[in-house]
Each structure stands twice: as C-alpha cells, then as structure tokens.
Amino acid sequence: MRLLLRIASRRATDAELGDIVEEYVERRHSAGWFVSQVVSILRRRRSPMTMPERGAEMISNVRHDIRYALRMLVRNPGFAVAAIAPIALGIGINTGVFSLLNSVAWRALPVPDGDELVSVYQETRGGPRRMVHGARSLFSIPEYHTYRDETHTLSDLMAYSRQWTVTLGRESPQEIGGILVTCNYFDVLRVSPAIGPGFTPGNCGPPDAPPVVVLSHALWQSAFGGDPQILHKPIALDGRTVTVVGVAPVGFDGVDMAREAFFAPTSMANVFRPEQKLLQDAHVSWLTLIGRRRHDADIAEARADLSLVAARIDSQQPGRTTSLIVQPAAALSLPPARRSVLWGAGIVMAAFGLVLLIAAVNVANILLARAAARTREIAIRLSVGATRGRLVQQLLTESGIIALAGAICGSLLFMWLFGALIPWLIAAIPGSEPVRIDTTPDRTVLWFALGLTAMTALVFGLVPALQASTADVHTAIKQDSTGSTGGRGWVRATLIGAQIALCTMLLIPAGLLVRALHAAHNLDPGFDYHDVAVVSISLRGPRYEKGGAENFHDTWLERVRALPGVERLSVASRIPLSPGRSQTTFRSGDDREGHVVDVNTVSPDFFSLLGIPIVRGRMFGDGEADAVLVTESTARRYWPDQDAVGRVVTMDGRPRQIVGIVRDAQVSQFDDVLSSYMYLAVKPGTQRSVRVLARTRGGLEAFAAAVRAETSRLDADLVVNVQPLSANVSLLQTLSRITAGIAGTLSLLALILASLGVYGVVAYVVSRRLREVGVRMALGADAHDVQGLILRQTLRPVVIGLVIGVAVAAAIVRLLQSVLFGVSPYDPVAFVGAPLLMLAMALAAAFVPTRRAMRVNPMAVLRSE
After folding, report:
1. CA atoms of 434 and 712, how far apart (whole Å)
2. Could you give the angle at which helices 489-521 and 783-812 cross, rounded to 10 degrees?
3. Cα–Cα distance for residue pair 548/127, rounded to 1 Å
4. What is the DSSP letter of 14?
5. Which of 123, 137, 421, 721 has the greatest number of CB atoms lying within 10 Å of its CB?
6. How are beta strands 532-538 and 689-696 bridged, if at all?
7. Residue 116 exposure: Cα atoms within 13 Å on the Cβ side
8. Cβ atoms within 10 Å, residue 353
9. Of the candidates 414, 328, 395, 432, which has an alpha carbon nearest to the alpha carbon of residue 116?
10. Which pLDDT score is estimated for 486?
11. Is residue 616 within a helix (H) or strand (E), and if so which, with residue range?
C-alpha cells in the first residue's frame, strides 16, 4: 500500500493517474475506508516543486496528455469514429472550398517569384468619356506608358488585353482565344519560350513590324502536331499572314483563369480590329497592368507610388479623379469579377460553415456523454490535487487530437474530391470553356486548415471540459456510473436547439433552391424557343472591310433562307437569354436625364419567328431605321396612362419614333420581364458578327450541315457555329440544377448530423433515467405517459431551435434572390415544409430510444439499482 501511495503521490498530476488511483480507491473503499481518508492520504503525500520542475512537468504533461488521448481513441474505436467522422466532414468540406477560392483569388501566379507580382486597376470618375473594351477599370496604351515610365517601386510593368478570339485558318478552320500583350510580357513574368526567341525589339517594338505570334504549347501540339520547324513559319489568323516567333513552355497558357492559345503584340489590335482604333485612343479601357515589385518595396509603397502617377494624369484631364486598386496578382484579379466571386464564395463558405458548426455541436454532445461516464476518474484527479485548469487542458488536448485527426482525413479526402469534381461540373455547363484551377494546398490553405481545426476543437471541446471539471469530488466518487446524470441538462438542451436552428437555416434556402429548380424546368419565357436554331459567324479579315461584310450578308441570308426546311429567318444583335446585355440611354420629350434601357437590333421577322405578338401599333419596315418597338412594361413605366405609340425618343443623338408595343418576354434575363427593353430595326451588313435565328423543320444536324456547306461556298475560312436556342434555357436549368444539388447535399448532411445528435442525446438521457422510469412505472404510471413526458422535454429545445432557425433564415434568404428564378424568397412551401421536416426528424430520432426504454421491466431496473 505504501509503495502504491508513493507512486500515486509522485504522479498526482500525470495523465495516467486515473488508472492507478482509481484502482487503489476502489480497494480501500471496499475495505471500509472513507473516501475522505483516501483523499487526505494522497494529498499529504505530494511534495512541493521548484520552478524548473514545474516547467519540465508542463512539457511532460502535454506529452502524456497526447499519449493518453491516443490510447483512449484506440481503446474506444466506436467513440473515435463517432467523434472524428463529423469533424472530418465539416473541416474537410470547408478546407476544400477554401482551396478552390484560394486558387483563383489569392494564390500567387504560377511563375517564378510570383509573389512579387502586383495587378493594377483603376476606378475613374469624371473627365473625358471613355470607351470600354472589357471593363471600365482597365487602361489605355498612353496611360500604360505613363505608369511604366514614371514608377519607382516596380522594376518593370507589362500590359495585356483579354478575350481576343480569332480564326485559325487551316484545312479545318477553328476559332481560338488568346491575348494581346506588350513586348515585355514574358520578361516581367520571367517565363522563357520553349522554342524561339519570343518577342524581341526587332519583331515587336516598331509600329511597322510584321505581325508575329507566340503559340501556347497546347495549340502547337494539337493544331501543328508539335512541328519542331514551326519557328518563322507563317500561319493564317483572321485571313492575315502571321509569323510564329515562339512556343510557350509546357503548362504556361496565360495568367488568368482562361487558358490562352496564343500571345500576340498589342500592335496587332489595329490588325485584328482596325475599326476600334485602340492604340490611338487615350480614353479607352482595354489593358490590364501587372508589374513586378522591387525587392525593397512592398505593396503599400507600390500603391502610394502609382497613386502619385495617377494624380499627375488627372491633373492633365480636368474633372477626372482616379482611384487605383493595387493588389497581389492572382488568376482572378479583375475587380468586378473578383467582387462577384468573393461575394458568392462568402455565401457558400457560410453554408459550409453551418455544416461544420452542426458537426461540432454533435461532437460536443458526444463528449458531454463521455464526460458523464468518466465522472469518477475526473473526481479522483481533482481529489489528489489536479487543478481545474490542468484538467481542462487534458480534456482540450483530447478534443484537439480528435479535431486534428478529422482535419487530416477530411482535408485530404475533400481536396482530392473537389479537384476531380470541379472540372466535371464546369464541363457539365453548356458552352463553358476549360479553366485553370489548382487545388494543390499551399501555405495559405494549410494555415486556414490549422486555424479552423483549432477553432473547431475549442467550439466542441471547451463546454464539455468546463462542465466536466466542475464535478463534486465526494459525491462523484461515492456514486456509481449509472447514477451520474452527466452534467446539467440545460447544456445538452442548448446544444440540441443550436443544431436544430443551424439545420433549419440550411434547409429553408435549400428548399427555395429546389423550388427554383422546379420553376426553371417548367420555364415559360414568353416566347417559343423550340425548333429554333442560332447561327453565329464572325466576319474577320481584310475581305470584310469597306463594304465586304454587307455583300456577304445579303448573299448569305438569301442562300440560307432558301434552304429546305427553313420556315423563318431573323437577324438579331442579341440572342434571347444569352449571357451579357446591350444597353443604351434615351430621353423622352423634355426629359433632361437619360433612362437606361436594354436594346436589341432585329429584323421584322424576329417577333413572328419567336411568337411574340404586337399588342398595339405596327411592325417597323425593312428600311425604317428610326422606328422603335417597346415592351408593355416599358410603355407602362415611362408613359403611364398614356399611349406610347407615336412618341418620339432621343437615342444616341438621333430622334426615333415608337411605332408599336410588343408583349413582355424574358429575352434579356431569366425571370426578368419588367426591365426596360426596346427593339431597333437592324440594317444587314453594318455588323461584323452575324447572328441569325432560324425556325426549321427536319432537325438541327441537317440544318447545320446545310448552313456550313453554303457558307463554305462563299468563304471556306469562316467558322460557323450552330446551336439550338433551347441551349440557352438548358444553361440556366443546368446552373439551377447544380446550385440546388449543392444546397440539397449540404442540407442532407446537416439533417443526418442533426438527427444523429438528437438521437444520441435522447438515447443517453433515457439510459440515465432508467431508475426514474422504473419508479414511475412501478408506481402505476402508464408507459405512454412516461414516453410523452420524455418526448415533451426533448422537443422543447427542438421547437425553440426551429423558431430561431426560421427567423434567421427569413433574414438571410434575400441574399439568394438573384438565383431564385420564379420563386419568392419567402415562399411558404419552403418556410413551412422545412420546419415540418425538421420536427418529423426530431420526433423520429427521439421516439426510437424512448420506445425502447418503455419495454424495460420496471422491477428488473429497480433490483439492478
């Protein structure tokens, strides 16, 4: 006995103390000793420690706590799985989503010393009117030259222009996308071409230099078979001869998310789009700037330096004020797109965060139940001198091990899963282009995962640890395990209510999105899109300048209209429900302020082809260039209680007369028939892009083949794209299906976790109340009365959680209004169905363990007690 006491006193605060002391207490207590005697002896055996000894003991404690926590998990595999699996799910999903967001918004560009690169954008107010080619936050060539020449914090600054689509002329012409770049593009990025010198002062600098191009490695392989003699060979781009001066290295296809097929000098803007005069205009937005910081300059210094340059430019243009956006360069850096993605990602991360919270609350309930089973062990530790802080440290260490194990398993699984799933989702979207997304974890992702793990461990571990460390020593040692209640019931009730509230906050938006999916599949846009084909052709090259486009239009339209099976044909500048909008401003009568309106230039057959009736007035004629048709909602908005037909509006400095009113239809955006919309008469041949709607019989494939054959007879180098108009509707339905699928999956996970949480807590509470159940039933209580009592006590926090969840969901669903096609954000079906589903789930989860307890023999329970 003395030997055991000495061992116990020396290890009074070790993590292994419970296994030694509890056995000793059991033996002495069964021999007739009082608990107070045992506690007194053990406390007297402890000796004071010096400061160095305390420091060594702290390190030893952490080591023992980790070993003890690992042994506990190995000894209790069921508990380990039940605790680690929800945390792996929650942390893994959130880390996977963050890795996707990090790859497009924060990860440094995949070039040497990518962390030194900064992107530069501007927001201008006042000053001369700017022409926009891409986004207002871009720069002109003169502005780029000024920033490049006057910066002191950037070692070099380059510029490039996105989204240049050209036709690569070969036996089978194809459209390829690329970018126009300044001559120092590859130098700033520190990327050397795999073949050839690339851009040099001789082939890129002079204004009269011959057209040259650098091919991407992928295009070189796919279109030219990896020809090693490709250097200095001429190729045809938009019907013009261009010389290949290099091939980019493997894997490098630009710095944006889109994969570029070629790189050409900015001087070729006059070659590809001579009518736009991008090089000469100082007030056109079309260039993105990326610079490399000097080693002795940080982001703040670069921002201040470039802001001084912006102020000097403003001083030369009275009324202009410029604000610069200077930030680390990333794959997605364009401010409007970045804000949209970050806003959407914030909503998604919040939803995934709710799943993690539900998982953490679930594990907290499990730890509370486990702490109840360890009441005697915890009391013995307190009795021999362990402080409450020491005990909390041990319990939090166990929680940390659980969270870390879950984080490792979940993060590895979901980052791999997301990396495989995202390309599949993008490919499932009609008309989508391949993008570059790298989900490989970097330091940012690892720090996020570690921070999320630590926070999660505190969320689900702190409350059970504080609850367990307040045990009454003498009472806890005297009572057996079945008599312990496991802490205050209000803690468990609060956790159940929190789970129900969080789950309801997910279920209601998911219900709204599912309702929106149903509306998308039953869409009636107000026009007939069945059996309608969309034909698109881009007229590029020198032969379509100076009247060539008009001649092609007339001949091509005549031939296509004569094809077998073609019922109607209409030219349109905007295809219904296609991405993007075409807007202008108009003034009516004496209005001083202009009104923004969506416009579409169409031929007269547009309305009969799509089945959009004219409700008042007439159709404009073929040569009636100044006639306008407006929609019903537009007429009501600007001429209420008046007749809009005959009114004159001023648009682009020209007076135009409204000759008719057409029925509202969703031609601009899905679920939008109330925006202002006007139709103008198109003049064939004035546009370099041909967009035609054709209602046909005989099938899309036969029509497409016939159109391509006729087009090839006129110009074999043109690329003809033929798609069904229903593809635009399918795109919206696909996006709705993906959104609803993600929300439904999250809600299902939350529902499962909440169900398990309610079931586990009720099963545990019932098991601790078997004595009470036995007494009540032995005294004559009916089984259904006892069952009803337990169910009422269980469902009280469930109802409170439902009320809170519905209230919070009502406040946040307006954030989803832009994707709730055809559904009100306060749709009663979702707001009633989701709470009813949660209530049914809670009843089912609580009924099973309660029903099982009612089958227990009361006398057997009392005898066992």
Report:
1. 28
2. 60
3. 37
4. S
5. 137
6. antiparallel
7. 17
8. 16
9. 328
10. 45
11. strand 614-617
Q: Token pair 């307890």 is at which residue?
A: 853
Amino acid at position 267, single letter: S
Query: What is the pLDDT of the chain when averaged over all its residues?
Result: 80
Q: Cα(177)–Cα(260) distance, rounded to whole angstroms?
A: 6
Let me know how many helices (H) and strands (E) the chain has, helices first. 26, 22
Query: Residues near 718 by Cβ (< 8 Å), separated by ≥ 6?
Result: 167, 173, 537, 538, 539, 711, 712
Tokens representing residue 548 in the block: 């060539």
User: Does pTM top 0.70 for this prediction?
Assistant: yes
Contact 20, 4 (CB under 8 A): yes
Helix, coil or strand: residue 765: helix
Q: Which residues contact 13 (CB under 8 A, 6 or more apart)?
A: 57, 61, 385, 386, 390
Q: Check: CB of residue 461 under 8 Å from CB of residue 126.
A: no
User: How many Å separate Cα 535 from the centre of its chain?
Assistant: 33
Which segments of 225-286 does DSSP mark as H helices, in order? 269-272
CA pair distance 809, 743, nearest whole angstrom? 14
What is the chain's alpha carbon radius of gyration, rounded to the nearest angstrom?
A: 36
pLDDT of residue 430: 62
- Helical (H) or strand (E) element with 240: strand 240-247
**Under 8 Å between Cβ of 613 and 662:** yes
399, 367 in Cβ contact below 8 A? yes
**CA 614 – CA 631 distance, rounded (Å):** 9
Q: Are the beta carbons of 800 and 470 closer than 8 angstroms?
A: no
Q: How many CB atoms lie within 10 A of CB 555?
A: 13
561-601 per-position pLDDT tens digit? 899 989 899 988 888 888 767 778 888 877 777 788 888 88
Can you tell me whether residue 193 is helix, strand or coil?
A: coil
- What is the per-residue DSSP string for 50-88? -HHHHHHHHHHHHHHHHHHHHHHHHH-HHHHHHHHHHHH
Of 611, 664, 657, which Cα lies nearest the Cα of 633?
Answer: 664
In angstroms, the CA 90 to CA 749 distance is: 10
Measured between alpha carbons, how far is residue 712 from residues 241, 688, 720 in Å?
20, 17, 9
Contact call for residues 614 and 662 (beta carbons, < 8 A):
yes
In Å, how far from its chain's centre is CA 317? 40
Report the alpha-carbon distance of residue 409 to residue 92 in Å, rounded: 7
Helix-helix angle 335-373:77-105, to 10 degrees:
170
- The tokens describing 157, both together, are 């600054």
Phi, psi of 753 (to 5 degrees): -65, -45
DSSP code of 486? -
Nearest to 111 by CA among 251, 271, 272: 251
HEC profile for 701-764?
Answer: HHHHHHHHHHHHHHCCCCCEEEEECHHHHHHHHHHHHHHHHHHHHHHHHHHHHHHHHHHHHHHH
Contact assessment for residue 446 and residue 454, using Cβ atoms and an 8 Å cutoff:
no
Extended strands (E) in 52-205: 117-125, 131-132, 154-169, 174-181
Give residue-wise pLDDT tens across range 732-764.
Answer: 777 777 777 777 787 888 888 877 777 777 777
Degrees to nearest 5, angle at CA 312 with 310 and 315: 110
d(CA 520, CA 507): 20
pLDDT at 715 over 70: yes
> What is the amino acid identity at position 389?
G
Residues 6+ apart with CB under 8 A from 114: 108, 329
790: exposed, middle or buried (Cβ count in 10 Å: 0-12, 13-18, 19+): buried
Neighbour count for residue 434 (Cβ, 10 Å): 13
Cβ–Cβ < 8 Å for 248, 263 = yes
The region of weakest confidence among 261-270, 347-356, 520-529 is 520-529
